[in-house]
Amino acid sequence: VGLVAGMLIAVAFAALRGDVGRSIKQFVRGNTEIPWRPILITIIVMAMIIGWLAAVWPYYHPFGTDRTGNDVLYQALKSIRTAVVIGSLATIATLPLAIVLGILAGYFKGWVDDGIQYFYTVLSSIPPILLVAAFVLLINVYIDQNADVFETGVERAEFRLFLLCLILGVTGWATLCRLLRAETLKIAELDYVQAAHAFGVSKWRVMARHILPNVMHLVLIVSVLDFSALVLYEAVLSYVGVGVDPNSSSFGSMINLARSEMSRDPVVWWNLATAFTFMLALVLAANFFADAVREAFDPRARVFRARRLLKEAA
């Protein structure tokens, strides 16, 4: 119903711009501002797949089971939740350090800039996987020594997941900080910033009112781009055993468990294929969204796409 209503609204708006017949022809041919045909095909295909799974799942295991009898589809869906939580929370944890230090370095320059540059240069020189693995091992030692703090295994797993997001955020802010520093150096020399200084506006107010709003497009673009990288990062960490709690479902844990099942006879391949397919779909969707955000907020990244123009009827 919503899809049909959207089509009718699109036809109505197109009709307001000119001849109704020509507008309908444009709509049917797909020559509109909104690509409705790919959207419609995607919705139909997803509805067919979801409907089939909803009908079969109560009676069968559509994607099979692992060696312990757990449903692979259920594990994949829970892994999506883990990946989204890590990508979102780790990105949010990255922002405070990156924004504050990047703007401070670009605005004050001098010894402040030198100190912050030295800090993130040293941090970037350390292999990130080794740095995160070291922090995760420290967390594991704390959890093992204070097992009575957690009432259930789920609480322990959620606490470890939260700390993993925090660690990924604290260790992954250097790239965004470097970009914000460069952008702040450019903005600080513009006329309206110099005029604010001439009127006696304080430095902190200049940073909050004139510099921060003009670098938020970079923050948004980099945050969306980093989401897919963090999802893959979590998969690698869980695969080597330093990621989420073993009781939590994740793509890396599924791939790690599937590694031993691939050597069985007959080969149990569906666990690995399901984890890889779902992770690929999530990362691909995040990358497409990141490209759209970058084109919307960064004019230099926009690509000219020629449109077909219908000839006016004589």
What is the total number of structural domains?
Answer: 2
Main beta sheet: strand number and arrangement? none
Residues in β-strands, percent? under 5%
Order of helix and strand elements from N to C terminus: HHHHHHHHHHHH
* Class derived from helix and strand content: mainly alpha
pLDDT average, as an integer? 79
Mind explaining what this structure looks like?
The chain has two domains: 2-56, no CATH class; 72-301, MetI-like (MetI-like fold, Orthogonal Bundle), CATH 1.10.3720. 75% of the residues lie in helices and 0% in strands. It has helices at residues 2-16, 20-29, 36-56, 72-108, 110-125, 128-145, 153-171, 174-187, 191-198, 203-239, 251-261, 270-297. The protein is flat.
Question: What can be said about this structure in brief?
Answer:
This protein is mainly α and 314 residues long. It has two domains: 2-56, no CATH class; 72-301, MetI-like fold. The chain has helices at residues 2-16, 20-29, 36-56, 72-108, 110-125, 128-145, 153-171, 174-187, 191-198, 203-239, 251-261, 270-297.
Structural features:
2 domains, MetI-like fold, 12 helices, flat, mainly alpha
Q: How are the SSEs ordered, and which strands pair?
A:
Elements: H1 2-16, H2 20-29, H3 36-56, H4 72-108, H5 110-125, H6 128-145, H7 153-171, H8 174-187, H9 191-198, H10 203-239, H11 251-261, H12 270-297
Helix pairs in contact: 1-2, 4-5, 4-7, 4-8, 4-10, 4-12, 6-7, 8-10, 9-10, 10-11, 10-12, 11-12
